[in-house]
Amino acid sequence: MVSALDRPRRLIFDLFFSTAIVTFDTEEIVFDKLKASRRLAPYVSPLVAGKARTLRGAEARSFKPAYVKPKAAINPSAALKRRPGEQLLGNLSPAERFDRILMQEMEDQEAEIARREEMMAIELLRTGKIVVESPDFPKMEIDFARPNGNTVNLTSGARWGQSGVKPFENIKTWAGTVHETSGSHPGLVIMGPGASNKFLADEALQKTLDNRRQTGGSMDFLGAVTGAQGTEAVYLGSTGQFEFWQYQQKYQNAAGSLVDMFPTEGVLLASQGVEGYACYGAIQDVDALQAMERYPKMWNEQDPSVTMAMTQSAPLPVAARIEASLFATVHS
Fold it and tell me: What is the pTM of this model?
């Protein structure tokens, strides 16, 4: 049997939303955020009483996470047919086949949810918000209020690959924007294949880029081309304050076409300064009603006889410091 190479990798989700896993036993997710303060201590006379200043402010934000529950009906007739990889005349009992079908379905549901989590993380860092919409769900926008200047769309004459445009100068300018809005340095620069090709084609950059391949952290980034299972990301090199990566992964849309998760002409500047959390709302099921990341569930219908398999989750990646990220579309 030839296995399908379709397992997702939660690269952006695990990289930027791994501060902690936080589960809630409520429908909404709430967190408090201190407001930034960069005041100078005022000059005063030692003979004059000091003036009391206002305390640092804070704001509470609440978000309602999306809810997902992939579900399948497993018909007993499926267990009467030879399974992929089984001997030609069959060497498994119907019960053994049924168990394997059920196991495969639960693995597929987990993969679908993981793929959705990765897509949500990318969308949040790309736009500063997450839009939840489907034919069975009214449109809902979860806006983390990232400054408008942290979302960049280069226009004609300033796009990467055009004459006179210096991509690395853009990177430094955008990093300065993140410094100003958040106080954090975005040391990781992640690019889609189209953007990275234009970035590496810059002759001025070629003289300074240290392009030695290496493994970063606990993640195994090997390979020369991104997109294959296990090589979704590749290390490109470093220039002192920045590490550069290329990332590509696809998903299947409603029309059945393969689409890039991360825009091919996109550039993300970020770091652990985003302080991202993997949050999960309560499971709204009478058999659960508690805080958990996943709730797999199976039950039998009697007539006609089928086994229903479903996995429920209410995921929401939360960027406590969303202004520590910037996303640019460098070509269109």
Answer: 0.84
Distance CA 263, CA 266 (A): 5
Query: Which neighbouring-strand residues pair with 329?
Result: 153, 266
d(CA 283, CA 299): 17
- Going from the C-alpha of 101 to that of each of 70, 95, 108, 299, 301, the distances in angstroms are 16, 10, 11, 15, 17
Q: Which residues of 141-153 are buried (b: 16+ CB within 10 A; e: fewer)?
A: ebebebeeebbbe
Return d(Cα 84, Cα 148) in angstroms, integer. 51
Place of tokens 């620069």: 189
Helix axis angle, 193-200 to 167-182, nearest 10°: 120
Superfamily name with CATH number, domain 11-34+58-329: capsid protein of prophage domain (3.30.1930.10)
- What are the pLDDT digits (tens) for 119-175? 999 999 999 999 888 777 778 888 888 999 999 999 999 999 998 899 999 999 999
